[in-house]
Design brief:
about 475 residues, eight-stranded mixed β-sheet, five-stranded mixed beta barrel, about 30% helix, single chain, alpha+beta, RNA-binding
Length: about 475
RNA sequence: GAUCGCAUAGCUCAGCUGGUAGAGCAUUUGACUUUUAAUCAAAGGGCCCUGGGUUCGAAUCCCAGUGCGAUCACCA
């Protein structure tokens, strides 16, 4: 028939379905020469006239096709063969025509020209949506819901499930609004190595790879903290990076082997200042993504409007267990764990025991955004010692809906203290702790050149997006979550 | 890593105590010039996840495996 199913030339679009549906006014007579392109998602043929639904990037709109209008001469092939027979759901077409309202009251594009843009060889899942006349709610039939198929063929998921598309648009807004906020403060977006000779900056098992020319092992980064602090040494006042981190650990609904974190370091600040910054930033992000400061997460309504409650870790334990652990030694803490029915083992030090109690008894209660401050020194080798409290560091984590979404310190900039703390980690590693940090001599050397007092912050972007889109699974906020091999 | 659940047509799902594989939508053919989950008439469509076993006979029962999900443990 001489029809190219995959034409090379461009097709100029001058309107989107959403704009037409929102702004068409029969009295004004606007949108009388529109060109749209998209996929055919439904077809209703009735002899010499037909209706179809065209889906473009903004949504769907009904189109009306009349045989004698798209085929004015004797040759009715374009309508009878091409439109009625060959055109399948999922095919891309370009149309030109004018907007009007049907007898049923639906804004529709009356097609004058019709062009094949691309053929779909595989059938799309057909998802039907109908408005229930009694309730007014939209009911969905034959939804494409199988999680395995949705994740493996995300492209199909995105075509047929508009709510999925919406999640990823929000994810983009999370990152963009945060980036805009940082840029407005004059901080610099930077990039640091993903392939690192040492996997520093966090406690996790890395992925290992090998560089052929250098003939040396390289690690996919588990964190970028140590590199960002080198840049503060180098004289930047504020640096931040959005980037993928890689951890070779278990997978579940909140863990993917690669995930996105945002880390920021600002010179001449401390963790108290950082709490104020985070409040301001998250409030703006929440408004950008959801339109307001309140967001529904599961059964709770979270309000991201600052200021957030601030509670030291010891006080939080006292509040939810009635026990003051602040002066306890390791043996006493072990007794407390026993009393609270928390399992412990001998490798756990004082810091770990406190963390266990916190995790078991406090975390779940922290629904509205809450800063937990001042952590035991043992678990935090990169944070500065507390200015007044012995045995603690200047650190906070932000908890929302019972989950941690941000972690921040007054950064340790004393090179002698830093070396000792990393050496303590080494001895932990020798005792069998496979999550202990490694010594990074160059990083300590950088601190020896002098780093200004600095506050640093890390936010898990995937987790934050899950919260702001009310998704319980990380796979719902990643386009392509890691899957096992397809059989 | 442990426990539990699921796997049948392109999609969503039935399929009982074992006896020729089912529906709706989609697809194909035909009718229909403003329909809207269009309608009406007809047709095609299956490695019942894989491999063993029990049985005269297995989608169904048993064992093993694979994939996915949920809960738990570890972590962000």
């Amino acid at each position: 028939m001489g029809i190219n199913p995959y034409p090379a030339e461009k097709f100029d679009v001058n309107a989107f379905s959403k704009d037409i549906k929102e702004n068409y006014d029969a009295e004004k007579g606007n949108y009388q020469e529109v060109s749209l392109a998209g996929r055919i998602m439904m077809k209703r043929v009735m002899g010499k006239a037909s209706f179809a639904e065209l889906q473009d990037s903004s949504g769907r709109i009904q189109i009306y096709v009349n045989r004698d209008e798209i085929c004015p001469g004797e040759d009715k092939t374009l309508y009878n063969q091409v439109f009625k027979k060959l055109l399948d759901i999922g095919d891309f077409v370009g149309i030109s025509g004018f907007a009007f309202v049907t007898r049923m009251g639906e804004i529709t594009v009356h097609v004058k020209e019709f062009k094949y843009l691309s053929k779909s060889l595989r059938p799309l899942p057909i998802v039907k949506r109908i408005k229930n006349e009694e309730t007014g709610e939209e009911e969905i039939f034959d939804a494409f819901t199988d999680p395995e198929l949705r994740y493996r063929r995300r492209y199909v998921d995105l075509v047929v499930n508009p709510h999925v598309r919406e999640v990823f648009l929000k994810r983009s807004k999370v990152i963009n609004s945060m980036r805009n906020y940082f840029n407005d403060q004059g901080w610099i977006e930077v990039e640091t190595p993903i392939l690192q000779p040492l996997h520093g900056g966090a406690a996790a098992r890395p992925f290992v790879t090998h560089h052929n020319t250098l003939d040396m092992p390289l690690y996919l980064r588990i964190a970028n903290e140590l590199y960002l602090k080198r840049l503060i040494v180098g004289g930047f006042d504020g640096v931040y990076e959005f980037g993928k981190m890689f951890r070779n650990e278990g997978m579940d609904r909140t863990h993917n082997p690669e995930f996105t974190s945002m880390e920021i370091y600002v010179a001449y600040k401390d963790y108290v200042w950082m709490m104020g910054m985070v409040e301001e930033c998250l409030e703006k992000v929440c408004v950008a993504v959801t339109g307001g400061t309140k967001v529904k997460v599961g059964d709770n309504e979270i309000d991201f409007k600052g200021p957030y409650r601030r509670l030291s870790m010891y006080d939080s334990i006292k509040e939810y267990t009635g026990i003051d652990v602040s002066k306890m030694d390791e043996a006493e803490l072990r007794d407390v764990c026993k009393q609270l029915h928390i399992e412990t083992d001998n490798s756990m030090g004082k810091g770990k025991l406190i963390d266990e109690i916190f995790g078991e008894k406090v975390e779940d209660h922290l629904i509205q955004p809450t800063y937990i401050t001042d952590y035991p020194i043992e678990m935090t080798p990169l944070a500065k010692k507390h200015r007044t409290e012995e045995g603690l560091v200047e650190r906070f984590e932000l908890f929302v809906n019972g989950k941690e979404i941000a972690n921040a310190y007054s950064e340790l900039n004393d090179p002698i203290d830093q070396r000792e703390r990393l050496e303590d980690q080494l001895s932990l590693a020798e005792r069998g702790d496979d999550e202990a940090m490694v010594m990074d001599e160059d990083f300590v050397r950088a601190l020896e050149y002098g780093m200004p007092p600095t506050s640093g912050l890390g936010i898990g972007i995937d987790r934050l997006t899950m919260m702001l889109t009310d998704n319980a699974s990380i796979q719902e906020v990643l386009f392509f979550p890691q899957m096992k091999k397809e059989v």
